[in-house]
Amino acid sequence: MRRPIGVIDSGVGGLTVASELVRQLPKESIIYLGDTKRCPYGPRPKEEVIQYTWEMVDFLLSKDIKTLVIACNTATAFTLDQLREELSIPVVGVIQPGARAAITSTRTGEIGVIGTEGTISSKAYVNALKQINTNIEVRDLACPRFVPLVEKGIVSGEEAYNVVKETLQSLKQFSNMDTLILGCTHYPMIRHLIHEVMGTTVTVISSGEETAREVSTILGYHKKLYRGTNDAQHHFYTTGDVNVFHEIASRWLEQKVDAVDKIELNTVKSLGRT
């Protein structure tokens, strides 16, 4: 039986990772779940993020996924270690791949990180970067206005540009910073605006490409890559507005997305999941 790759996110942002999986692993089927009803996760308490993440995970486990991709930086920061310990399938987060790409990119050794309040306060990127190179200087900034903007589909135009410009103003003072990590999978949807505001001297890093490459490597190592001839079958689930999700997914994946269903997640009260 053909088993799919499972992808979870707090909303539509993880589609930036899903699109890279589709591009790099065209034979693989993907099941995506975005918790758009309760997005954003960034301002939520750690315990709540863990609870919501487990609810998404349990739903995807019922679909017999062969690997899990946590395409949400906040969920990765709070749950990756626990999920790897408790699940029997490979689990891939987005923080380590993004950190590795940034280390490769920087020439000055000064790296910026933008993300949700939860991701920034967790210092997950700071720790990941310092584990690779203790001499790296990290400038991090929470951008709470970005995710609601993207979830509404406002990814261009004057309103979006002004929000990005106002938010990133404080990072402009660090003239030696040559690399900026998009520490939220929603942010690549406004990458063009971020790049415009930060200028051409700053390389903008999205973790989607590196994450997909890591998934490919892990599936290959475990001999779980699909070797058949059937076309990939992708299915998408959302806890929020199906029409909004459908529109954003079709635009981002650059293909018509038909298989979108709305679901209600069940509260999980298992030991160790709160």
Give a brief description.
Helices cover about 45% and strands about 15% of the residues.
Structure description:
The chain has 274 residues and is α/β, with parallel strands linked by helices. The protein has two domains: 5-93 and 209-262, 3-Layer(aba) Sandwich (Rossmann fold), CATH 3.40.50; 95-207, Rossmann fold. It is 43% helix and 16% strand. It has eleven helices and ten strands. Helix 4 (95-105) crosses helix 6 (124-132). It is globular and about 50 Å long. It starts with a strand and ends in a 12-residue tail after the last strand. 46% of the residues are buried.
Helix and strand arrangement:
Elements: E1 5-9, H1 15-24, E2 30-34, H2 46-61, E3 67-70, H3 73-86, E4 91-92, H4 95-105, E5 110-115, H5 117-122, H6 124-132, E6 137-142, H7 146-151, H8 158-168, E7 179-183, H9 191-198, E8 203-206, H10 208-221, E9 235-238, H11 242-253, E10 260-262
Parallel strand pairs: 1-2, 1-3, 2-9, 3-4, 5-6, 5-7, 7-8, 9-10
As laid out across the biggest beta sheet, the strand order is 4-3-1-2-9-10
Q: What is the radius of gyration?
A: 18 Å
Mean pLDDT: 93
Helix tally equals: 11
- State the end-to-end CA separation: 33 Å
Which characteristics define this entry?
11 helices, alpha/beta, Rossmann fold, Glutamate racemase, disordered C terminus, six-stranded parallel beta sheet, 2 domains, single chain, Glu_race, 10 strands, Asp/Glu_race, EC 5.1.1.3, cell wall biogenesis/degradation, four-stranded parallel beta sheet, 274 residues
